[in-house]
């Protein structure tokens, strides 16, 4: 064990301070130098807060002043459809504003899989919510899936797209 | 250093340099000053000077190349944004090192928060070991994430356990325990 401790100590002393990445990282940095610093998340948050407040108001109203069950459900289902439409508009807007086709990136597959999983989950939750629109946990889960989808799309758009342009730095 | 740094906007006194480290610090200071004014060429030179060191730190903390590449890019984008806040009171390399650790830990946390939902346990680590890596780097890839991060910061980067605990939001005792765990595992791997 003493020998192994010595070996480890020697290995640590020999560890180089620098390592070279396999691809050129500068291009990805340079593309983002002129990007606004705080716009990446700013527009989703107000929408999420507004949606949550709206949801709280709607759910609270119907909890405190219960009316006919069908009227409650109709109002919530309408809200559900409105938020779904807003979310879809956000996704479409992101697709329109993207600068490059990040799906050509060699690293895009995990992101695409993640997005597909989220969309499938969101659809199931959406269908469940239509049947049971007063379930708060389902609402939270549904809004979370939408938020994560937006974040993943944005992350995907930051991926490098052309491996062939890599090369030695100097 | 700070006096020399403050005089950089005027002419540089190369005769005062006594070692290669001094020369590097002076070059950093000049480039930082120009990059602060929005000079991307100077920033590119700063990148070329430091990206290998930044990548090494990110790779050892993240335990995988792709995440390390992302963390390295995030670090330099953040550096560009925060450069005007650098006042030259500390060495640029020290400041960049701290920024790198923050960005690497942030990237690891960001990825974990999503993917951990689909993975079976917190202790999941890189399944495929890349035999291109040498020495400790090859062994570090096989450590559990938390133990690896603590070990890298303590044994390779010279952090104290209380600093590590603060950065990772854990108890000092936990940091010590993770270090000894990592050390034991590494000795078993040798």
Automatic annotation (TrEMBL), chain A:
Q: Which domain of life is it from?
A: Bacteria
Annotated protein name in UniProt = Uncharacterized protein
Species of origin reads: Shewanella insulae
UniProtKB/TrEMBL annotation, chain B:
* Every RNA polymerase sigma-70 region domain range: 46-112
GO terms classed as biological process: DNA-templated transcription initiation
Give one Pfam family, short name only.
Answer: Sigma70_r2
Q: Respond yes or no to whether keyword Transcription regulation is given for this record.
A: yes
Q: Which GO terms describe its molecular function?
A: DNA binding; sigma factor activity
Could you list this entry's UniProt keywords, alphabetically sorted: Sigma factor, Transcription, Transcription regulation
The answer to whether keyword Nucleus applies is: no
Domain RNA polymerase sigma factor 70 region 4 type span(s) in chain numbering: 136-186
Tell me which family the UniProt entry assigns to this protein.
Belongs to the sigma-70 factor family. ECF subfamily.
Name of the molecule in the record: Sigma-70 family RNA polymerase sigma factor
